[in-house]
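Entry 14. Ran structure prediction on the chain below.
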Amino acid sequence: MVNFGNKPRIIGKGFIKRIILLKRRGFPLHYVIPSLLTYEVSRRSSCPCRYLILPNGFRVILPIRHQNIRRGTLYTYSEIFIYNEYSKLPEYNVHNGDIVLDVGAFVGLYTLSVADKASFIIAIEPNIASYTFLINNIKLNKLHSKVMTFNVALGDFEGRTMLYIENWLASSSTLFNSWHKDYGHSLSIPVRIIRLDNLLKSLGIDRIDMAKIDVEGAELMVLRGAMESLRTHLIRKLIIEVHLDIVDIRDVKGFLEKHNYKVDLLEVRGDTALLYGKVKD
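Output, structure tokens:
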């Protein structure tokens, strides 16, 4: 095991070659930047992968063979740790003892980013390939005692639905095949879909201090399936990435305000928007 430490460093010719290779393959800047950061390389392990080291010391598997998961992992890393999408307002940071809900957990980057402070995390991911990396990342960091995972989609009904797996970014898999259609969805899989209200009730959860929701167009479906949790303010704060080709941001904002939530941040960028909301005092 080779450990280059916790700070970004330039490591020889091999390091430069990796950057050049990424650029030649057409990776935009927000994919290349994480590759500038330190990671551990295991030459003895049978796993064809590397590990990104997060700022809090937890590790994330960076697969070599599963390219759309690899790209999705690098992209999500940049969202969380370079562009700080979930820490734009200090009061929305996770605090010691918080219970956190991660909807659209992908391989667990947000879950891991708050796992050193949260007392309990519920991580939900419908894509079975991404879910496999999610549970392996939980095991890798010995967090199975505080993270509970579910391989389901959330929505406003219970049953089965189709999940469309994006060819380019596995993290952009969606219930709507019109989302990122230009990137291609060569694979679609049936998944179980449930209502968040029913899940929280079955778990006996009486509060969620922070809910992060990134569901590639299913934002309103998730909120409609959580109406009781929103009505009773069981969910205290939310950070939602809204996908504007599918959902009208005014509908999401209005839905939250109807349930007496205050929107503290609404940032539109391209085909998505970032919304921070909390229960009104």
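The two ends are 50 Å apart (CA to CA). Will compare against last week's run tomorrow.
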